[in-house]
Amino acid sequence: MSWSLNITNDIIQNKQISFLGGKPCIPRGYTVPKCKLCGNEQCFYYQIALPTGMFWADKTIALFCCTSCMDESFIVPQMLKTILHQADIPGEFLSNYQRNFEFLVFETNNGFLMESYQEKVKFRAIELIESNELGNFGMLGGTPQWMSENESPASYDGDIPMHFLMQLCSGIEFHVHEAAPPQVELNIMGEQSPSPFDFYSLFLGNALYLFGTEYGDPLVYAITQVD
Length: 227
Fold this sequence. Notes:
Structural class: mainly beta
Protein name: DUF1963 domain-containing protein
Largest sheet: 12 strands, mixed
Low-confidence stretches: none
Order of helices and strands: EEEEEEHEEEEEEEEEEEE
Distance between the termini: 25 Å
Helix content: under 10%
Strand content: 35-45%
Mean pLDDT: 96
Radius of gyration: 17 Å
Organism: Poriferisphaera corsica
Number of strands: 18
Number of domains: 1
């Protein structure tokens, strides 16, 4: 089964369980992760509740990413130093590669609105429609629509199968509130500088593909590809 992910015109945050921006709805006691590169609090980008009938059903995936620094070595998630298609991901890789971003996976029913979070990205609800088409935000389940070659991994730590979770479209603009600080980017000299735009991008706006472990701790493997 597969679902199109579509950004809607709903801009009022209430009891939605799939959305971008606004305040995260996550388990009590969880603190917003800090960037391991600069030490600043990461920004909440989006969360998607996985529906019944899908791998990791009734779980939610939330993504935080740093907008306060930019390091040319960590612009996109670290890649394996091997042929990516049908690769076995080394043990501990999926924990250690999350330096300036972090995936949080939890039971959807355990999510509570984090009122203390100072939102940066403007809230927009995301609608799930059963379909094998790519929506304006992306797609859940089904078969990934690769921009280039198939880079699906086979397993993690030798024997844990990996399954496709979701794909996010390239070029998504995460529009921010006026009071939000600009995203830090690299200028033509390779130096960090504030972006002139009124939106944040995620991993340079590349298409994003997420895979998850079949059992054990729910770990996420992220791959980006250029349009």
